[in-house]
Structure formats: structure tokens, C-alpha cells
Automatic annotation (TrEMBL):
The keyword Glycosyltransferase applies. Substrate binds at D39, K61, S152, Q211, G231, R232. Its EC number is 2.4.2.10, 4.1.1.23. It comes from Tigriopus californicus. The active site is at D93, K95, D98. The chain holds residues 212 to 472 of 472 of the full protein. One of its GO terms (biological process) is 'de novo' UMP biosynthetic process. In the N-terminal section; belongs to the purine/pyrimidine phosphoribosyltransferase family. In the C-terminal section; belongs to the OMP decarboxylase family. The keyword Flavoprotein does not apply. This is Uridine 5'-monophosphate synthase. Residues 33-247 form the Orotidine 5'-phosphate decarboxylase domain. GO terms for molecular function: orotate phosphoribosyltransferase activity; orotidine-5'-phosphate decarboxylase activity.
Amino acid sequence: SVVDGLDFQTRSSKMLHPMAKKLVEVMIGKKSNLCAAVDVTKTSELLGLAEQLGPFVCVIKTHIDILEDFQYERTIKPLLALAQKHNFLLFEDRKFADIGNTVSLQFQKGLYAIATWADLITVHGIPGPSLLKALEKSSERCIGAVMVSEMSCEGNLIDSEYTKKCISLVESTSSTCAMGVVSQSRLSHQSGILQFTPGVNLSTSKDNLSQRYVSPEQAILERGADIIIVGRGLTQSPNVEQTAKDYQSKAWEAYLTRIQS
Ligand code: 5IU
């Protein structure tokens, strides 16, 4: 794809969504296209890992509803302070998938009040444009929606027609709401659309629940990832900081290689 040869600076000028621009600015500034998926169940673990990973990542991805001791004041406030301190964005992987009215409530209300703190969120394409419209209407902060267009797990039900429909939805709303995709391959040829690719691990090729992994180099050079998402490869490392540094440099080097070829 032509997009593969373009650097983030050049692509930034094609980005219509303010959150996409902001993310790319962070990526260039920190030389990081690494997103850490911090899937842990205690607030102290989340904050501890965010502190350790912060310097090396452009984004921290959460599943805020798996915390057993979530309290807005004790979880979100310190997390926002760490995001500010280390200059990373917060990505809540909520995978919204309902009718507009319900999504709007899930986004703004409840214990988690996602709209008040997340910079990015994931959405499914199944409900169609109404979901994106609802998010746009209920987001004063111009949230960046990232659409799940392909999945990493073996046996998932997404087919290529569905994937194509997701891409056209993302491309048609890239100025207001959707700014990227989660996928396993380069799908959009619009240089403003960012590709997040999960299923990346340096030391194993699968887990025991059908997850599949590739290396950072494969994700970026063969599959077109702009940002790699790494979870347990980081969070279960005996030396989180060194491992984060390693993933960060491998991913950034792969990006530099890609734009030079
Ligand atoms: N995630 C995937 N694959 C996908 C999608 C999301 O792994 O297709 I969509 C999420 C799940 C988890 C993270 O939060 O990315 C990957 O974590 P591990 O690197 O620990 O497998």
C-alpha cells in the first residue's frame, strides 16, 4: 500500500480527526508506536504498570471493567495524572456494539464514565453508522473511535465482506469520529487512518485460548500496523522496563525500515 511508504509527519497532514493528530504528535515526539494493553484486575497493578511503561509507550489500553477495586477517584484520577506525566493517551477497549441510545449511556454514565477520561475507544461495526453518530453526539472531547475490523483470535467469525464494510464506515467518518481500525492487515489506503494491531509477542506464538501472535517486525512490515498492541508480552515480563524498551525500539525500527523501503 502507498500508505506504507509515508512517514507519520506526512500522514498527519491528511488526518482530519484531532485525536489522530494528537496521537501521531505523541508517537513522533517519543519515537514510540507501542501501545501497552494492561489487562489487570487491581488498581495498584494498573497504576504501577502505567508508571513503569509510561516512558516507552504512546498509548495505554485498558479494560477498565476487569478491575475488582475500581473507584473513580482512586483509579481514574491517578491514571490521568500518569498519562499527563509520561505523555501517553488512554484507550478504553470497550468494544461498543449496541444501538445509539444504549451506547451513549454506556459511554457517558455508569461507574466508569468513559467519556470523561478516555482519548480513544474501540467500537464494533455491527450496528452501523448510528453507533458512531451517537458517540459523536455524546463526546465533547472529540473521542477517537477505533473500529474492530479484523480479529487476532483463531476461528473468529469476521469475513472479508464485513471487514470491507467496516473500512468504508471508518473512511466516511474519519473527520468526526472514527480515526482508525484494529486489524491484522493493511485495509485502508487513506493515509489518515491509523491501524492498531494486537496479537504481538516476542516470545510465544499463541496462548491457550486461541490468541495468535506475530513479532513486532511482522506486524509492522508484513501486516501494515502503525501501532502495535502488546499485552502479556509486557505485563508478565520479569523486567517490565527493559522489555518495554525492547518492544519500543523494535517497533520503531520496523516503522523506519518500512518508510525507507
Ligand atoms: N485484542 C486482541 N485481539 C483482537 C482485538 C483485541 O488481542 O483482535 I479486536 C486485545 C485483547 C487484549 C490485547 O486486551 O488486545 C492483547 O493482549 P495480549 O498481548 O496479552 O494477548
